[in-house]
Design goal:
309 residues, Spore Coat Polysaccharide Biosynthesis Protein SpsA, Chain A, seven-stranded mixed sheet
């Protein structure tokens, strides 16, 4: 199989049919073997029935039906694990991604990239949605060092090898390119079209923004300290304990040389708290380090491009 197209859908009955026919027109021109994988993410509006109707006409369609709504990250993960194509394209089902951009993604990938992300440089979304996206993209670039402009764009293409061992959860689909870049894969970007939503309701919400930010913190930590978490927790513990010792010494100075009663100052309490916090952080770092060693017991924390003999 040359190309797998993965399309998660949640209550997109009005869009599936048109998306399918637009997609097939593009894929036939490529003259490559392809499969279309629809993921019904717990839809309640008849989206699955529309997918099944198309499946009867086209044997190249595969449908994965979730028992309930698990979210886009879970849908992508299921799609990756059930795809057979050498190249994997992911896109939304709401018709905001343009299938005509797929040849551009493939061309860019063939230039030597491992993954290519779409860049919705002229977004057709609300001002609030674009503002949140602008803040999130700048924060992501600052925390991960990733260079692409629009990690939230669903239209992407991957080489199969990039995603076959990925484990996704939460709202991590936004940060797949950052994870792959961290692993050493070459990430590219192309400008793509973006259409306004005509049917159905957006799944975007403030709760998803919050969850995405928490996942970003996790990924940024994992990217920098996954091999040795003791480095960060040990440093924080040392700083906390050091300040505790300083405040404790200051308390002793006031008590011994200034005749200040320890009950008249908060310094001793703060000093004890900081020392205990430092010890806890150090112990936590050691435990985390042990967990990491267990995690990497059967898996390397590096990626070999090739071995020359």
């Amino acid at each position: 199989m040359d190309i797998s197209i993965i399309i998660p859908a949640y209550n997109e009955k009005q869009n599936i049919n048109k998306l399918y026919y637009e997609l097939v027109l593009v894929l036939k021109k490529l003259n490559k073997n392809y499969e279309i994988i629809f993921i019904d993410d717990g839809s309640t509006d008849g989206t699955f029935e529309e997918m099944f109707r198309l499946k009867k006409k086209d044997k190249r369609i595969k449908i994965i039906k979730f028992k309930k709504n698990f979210g886009q990250t879970a849908a992508w993960d299921a799609g990756f694990k059930n795809s057979t194509g050498d190249k994997i394209v992911v896109m939304d089902a709401d018709l905001q991604n343009d299938p005509n951009d797929i040849p551009k993604l493939i061309k860019k990938l063939d230039e030597g990239y491992d993954v290519v992300s779409g860049w919705r440089y002229k977004r057709k979304d609300s001002i609030s949605k674009k503002a949140f996206s602008y803040i999130a993209n700048n924060l992501r670039r600052a925390m991960t060092g990733e260079k692409i402009h629009d990690s939230g764009c669903s239209l992407k293409i991957y080489k199969k090898e990039c995603v076959k061992n990925l484990t996704l959860y939460g709202e991590m689909h936004r940060y797949i390119t950052a994870i792959l870049s961290w692993k050493g894969y070459k990430v590219g970007e192309v400008k793509v079209n973006h259409n306004p939503r005509k049917h159905g309701k957006t799944k975007y919400s403030l709760s998803r923004v919050f969850k995405g930010m928490m996942d970003l913190l996790l990924i940024a930590f994992w990217q920098k300290y996954s091999a040795r978490p003791i480095h960060v927790f040990g440093l924080l513990g040392f700083i906390s304990a050091l300040f505790g010792v300083i405040l404790g010494s200051l308390s002793f100075y006031f008590w011994a040389f200034k005749n200040v009663s320890l009950s008249d100052t908060f310094l001793p309490n703060v000093a004890v708290f900081l020392v205990l916090m430092g010890i806890n952080l150090l112990v936590f770092g050691i435990i985390a380090d042990i967990c990491i060693k267990t995690y990497y017991k059967d898996e390397d924390n590096y990626l070999i491009e090739k071995i020359v003999k």
